[in-house]
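Researcher: Re-running this chain for the archive, since the previous output was lost when a drive failed. Same request as before.
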Amino acid sequence: MTSRWLLPVVAIGAMGAIAFAALTWREQQRVYHLVLATGGEGGQYFAFGQAFAQLVAQHHPDIQIEVQATQGSPQNMDWLQAERVQLALVQNDTPALPAARGVAKLFPEMFHFVVAKNAGIESIADLRGKRVALMPEGSGSYALFWPLSQHYGLTPNDFQAKSYSPTAAHEALLQGEADALFRVIGLGNGTVAALLQSDRVRLLPIDQVEALRLSLPYVEATQIPKGSYDGGLPIPATDLEVVAVNALLVAHANVDDDVVRRLTQTLHEFRNELIQLYPAAVMIEPVEELPNLGLPLHNGAQAYYGQDQPYFLVEYAEPIGLLISVSLLIASGVWQFRLWLIGRQKNRADMYNLEILDLINRVQETHTLADLKVIRQQLFKILQEVVVDLDIDRISPESFQSFTFPWEVAINTIRHQEVLLSQSQSCPPSTEDNPDA
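Model: Regenerated structure tokens:
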């Protein structure tokens, strides 16, 4: 490389190194601000969101999660699609919108059907003519009640349904302003436990899960174990057959992949710490393979779940080995061709050099200017041929450089010989050689 190019190249390299270092430093100092849509402030989602945000802050200080109270899953999904939030908690029955990507399955949420003891209600089918307290419109509980009641042959005109906040719904049931209450929530919720302490209400089972799955394919059969809400009485008195949906953590597709990978890692690898902050997290099951969440996985979550899968190099060892072998074979062929080409170029340059040496010998034996002119013409013809060969890569630039030295020696030898011949032919004969002088 010539000196005039060296300084610019060094300068560009230094600028690139500085830019790379600056970008690396900036990335290390970056703080990610995320908003997590949960649910009502007295609900499971909000409590989980606060615990999860605290845990993430402890292990990843560069990820700050703001917990946002909402009306529930449908609103959360809408806000995620609109990028008003970057993370959301939703029930798995919530219709997924295009921007939503799955991160993790959290805990099951049981259908809680609580009725007044004096209301004469033994199942959902007995709600005809009754007053039903529902969760806020827009919540997952509210949305699930209608297909559930339809399965039992009821229409909205068969009963009186009214939406309340969770606290107000519990109070309405206790005060006799409602005959039944329907709520979907994780097991062990404190407000539900307080409600069930009253001797005015009781918790009823919800069965027919296989039939329900015909219209609600996302529900699962589960149990509320005996004594879940009070081990002394106990409440419930026996294992209670109910159905459930799963709570999911979802993220917008645009959230940084590494951030989502670390969120997923925190959720699973620091689960014991999360349980201390939020006991219901004990129901988050360990994941041994890529989970099926009913919507596409986020790339970051997939990177975490797939880390125990065979490495790419191991899984594709045979085709990679074949590719490497073929590449080496091609590279070897290209190298051999290059060596052959370099040798061929050198041989051609050597041929020209030998021709020039032969011309130099002829110059020294030449005694007429006419013969020197012929040799000069041959020398320039060789130069012309060499330049053409250089242009079409029949000789290399290095060979051309080695050619120029003997060529210059030859042209200087011709000039010198011309001078000598010209002087000898222009000098007059001496008097000693002229007998008539």
